[in-house]
Amino acid sequence: MNPLITADLAQPTSPIIVALDFSDANSTLEFTSQLDPLACRVKVGKELFTASGRSLVEKLAAQGFQVFLDLKFHDIPNTVAHACKVAAECGVWMVDLHASGGRRMMEAARDALAHFSHPPLLIAVTVLTSMEAEDLNELGIKASPAEQVLRLATLAHDCGLNGVVCSAQEATQLKIALGADFQLVTPGIRLNNNTDDQRRVMTPVDALAAGADYLVIGRPITRASAPLKVLQQINQDIQHSRAETEKL
């Protein structure tokens, strides 16, 4: 795969990243054939990547999708740096690592991508949206989720990363603290009150209003009987909300 393939892909105007929560390549490709690469980006996580590997990422890119490789790297600096380099060679649009891996790990990953003409966005995971204060406390972290997110996001910003994964509930404080150019990727996006295994959740329109740049949405789209219709409706709601905001 040409590492510059991401430069040739069409740029979606939608902030939606569809989480491909499937267990095999065939189901994934059958599903993505129903989507428009101009209407969304897609995310490949641990289960799907473990089952299907690099070849699936390259096939999705060949379909025209910008791919977020969500493997949350967390290891010694040299290992993470090489992993990020390989991800870039696959042609991914975005790759992430755990901010809790520390400064040396994040800076090594940043440096590994510096030689690419069109490197993927390098994003740090702060606090998983499935975690609450009691979960952090069990790990010996006395800070609230919001405080810990800000601490890790500030470190990622100082290390020269492009942004962080965070709950939409933390988006406003991060935009204020770290600036408009620091990209915020928000999972835990739901279309109704069903939170599944997520705890800190928000609707698409509310998340964008709070300061999110990209919205990771999985089951509300992937489990829908008409996925493209649901995706189009979310995009329409977002466009309507933006138009209304511009009138103010």
In short:
The protein is an alpha/beta fold and 248 residues long.
Overall pLDDT: 90
Named CATH architecture: Alpha-Beta Barrel
Considering DSSP H and I runs of 4 or more, what fraction of the residues is helical?
40-55%
CATH topology (level 3) name: TIM Barrel
- What is the CATH top level name? Alpha Beta
Strand content: 5-15%
Question: How is the topology of this model organized?
Answer:
Blueprint: H1 5-8, E1 16-19, H2 25-32, E2 41-44, H3 46-62, E3 67-73, H4 77-89, E4 94-98, H5 103-113, E5 121-125, H6 133-138, H7 145-158, E6 163-165, H8 171-178, E7 183-186, H9 204-210, E8 214-217, H10 219-222, H11 227-247
Parallel strand pairs: 1-2, 1-8, 2-3, 3-4, 4-5, 5-6, 6-7, 7-8
Features:
globular; 248 residues; disordered N terminus; single chain; TIM Barrel; 11 helices; alpha/beta; eight-stranded parallel barrel; 46% helix
Task: Please provide a written account of the structure.
- The protein has 248 residues and is α/β, with parallel strands linked by helices.
- It has a single domain (5-247), classed as TIM Barrel (Alpha-Beta Barrel).
- Helix content is 46%, strand content 15%.
- The chain contains eleven helices and eight strands.
- Strands 1-2-3-4-5-6-7-8 form an eight-stranded parallel barrel, surrounded by six helices.
- β6 (163-165), α8 and β7 (183-186) form a beta-alpha-beta unit.
- α4 packs parallel to α5 and α7 (145-158) packs parallel to α8.
- It is globular.
- The protein starts with a helix and ends with a helix.
